[in-house]
Amino acid sequence: MSDETETRDRILDAARSAFLRHGTSGARMQEIADAADVNKALLHYYFRTKDRLAEAVFTREARRLLPPVLETLGSEMPLDEKVRRVVELYLEVLPEAPGLPAYVMAEMHYHPERLPAFVESLTGATPQAHGTRVRRQLDAQIAAEVEAGRIRPIATEQFMANLISLCIFPFAARPMLQLMMGHREGDFEAFVEDRRERLADFFLRSLRP
Question: Which residue from 18, 84, 89, 183 has the highest number of Cβ atoms inside 10 Å of its Cβ?
């Protein structure tokens, strides 16, 4: 790894921590420079503005989830296997960055204009193209499962929203859950491990007739 790449990665790591703690608007470039052990001028040399730095952090973090989730949902994998794979992807990545869902959702809410170009840069196709492919595949699979009597009728939008929400919510609402459940050190991690083992079956059972 070159010195330039190492420096850039160090800045991105420091910015990620700052953005997860404070949000993009609340994070300070000087704080990020100090945490990355670079001067502020070098920080601006690499990323020019905080918005550009935020885009770089957002892209790097979302790359770990968005492409594989879209690929899974749009594949010909059986529906049960898709559910298990999506749960596995989310619960593999999010424990390493439990603040990520709240940060990503806030960024998408405040900067929705970034999303189309962002998705295309990560995946090589427009959101519309992905949406059409995923929708067509899930529509057909859900219809086939309903016709075979293996699941109850459910709209594709509800299927996707329910599945992804069940994966993301504990991380987006972690402080509230920890407070309500009286979690001590290590309890949340154990909770996530238990969820990793049970969530796919829970979701699939909810679809059964």
Answer: 18
Give the angle subtended at the CA of 198 by the CAs of 193 and 199, to the nearest 5°: 95
Q: Which fold has domain 63-207?
A: Tetracycline Repressor; domain 2 (1.10.357)
Distance CA 209, CA 202 (A): 14
Assign a CATH topology to domain 3-56. Arc Repressor Mutant, subunit A (1.10.10)
Angle, vertex CA 51, rays to CA 9 and CA 19, nearest 5: 60
* Contacts of residue 120, Cβ cutoff 8 Å, sequence gap at least 6: 126, 127
Q: Report pLDDT digits (tens) over 126-164.
A: 777 777 889 999 999 999 999 999 999 999 999 999 999
Angle at 123 between CA 118 and CA 125, to 5 degrees: 90
